[in-house]
């Protein structure tokens, strides 16, 4: 199955060309390259989106620190770039394990990726990005977070094979991320949005 299925009316380019394009764009604009397709990202998301992203990054980071993990959590500002996949994305939350080069602005080896879905981003997160992300050799969990109700979908890789989907609904659910050795309650993910706190 080819990585790129070009759709008329969209702009496509390589990662090298995309990086040249970024250099000419205003700093306040956000752009991604998804399987070679250039996508302008929305700036100024709803507060619920921002709060959920902050919750995931904070609670996940705290749990990793408590476990003595060397994994690091990044939220919305650190690129995942992979030239062979023609990808340069800004995941809502990304976990990277292992050392990063001093001064790096991207990684090609995320272990866990989270995308918080809205009506406008769901198709891109669920299909276009997943089409790219599942080809990342390092990725072990892809987590889709529904913004407006407590529902989490987790795709897991086991033994190098994507093994299916785990679905969590309700604020009493707990997402276990085996690759990190931590658990993340939905009540923490949605704290201040759909739950107290």
From TrEMBL:
It comes from the Bacteria. The keyword Nucleotide-binding does not apply. One of its GO terms (molecular function) is endonuclease activity. Keywords: Endonuclease, Hydrolase, Nuclease. Residues 16-186 form the Putative restriction endonuclease domain. This is Uma2 family endonuclease.
């Amino acid at each position: 199955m080819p990585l790129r299925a070009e759709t008329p009316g969209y702009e496509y380019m390589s990662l090298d060309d995309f990086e040249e394009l970024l250099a000419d764009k205003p700093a306040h604009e956000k752009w991604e390259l998804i399987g070679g397709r250039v996508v302008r990202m929305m700036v100024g998301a709803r507060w619920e989106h921002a709060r959920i992203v902050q919750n995931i990054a904070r609670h996940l980071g705290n749990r990793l620190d408590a476990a003595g993990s060397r994994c690091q959590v990044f939220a919305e500002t650190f690129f995942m770039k992979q030239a062979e996949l023609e990808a340069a994305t800004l995941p809502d939350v990304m976990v990277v394990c292992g050392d990063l080069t001093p001064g790096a602005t991207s990684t090609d080896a995320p272990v866990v990726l989270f995308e918080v879905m809205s009506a406008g981003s769901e198709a891109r997160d669920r299909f276009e990005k997943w089409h790219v992300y599942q080809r990342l050799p390092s990725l072990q969990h892809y987590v889709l977070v529904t913004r407006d109700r407590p529902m989490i979908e987790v795709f897991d890789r086991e033994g190098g094979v994507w093994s299916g989907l785990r679905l969590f609904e309700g604020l009493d659910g707990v997402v276990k991320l085996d690759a990190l050795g931590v658990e993340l309650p939905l009540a923490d993910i949605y704290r201040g949005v759909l739950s107290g706190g």
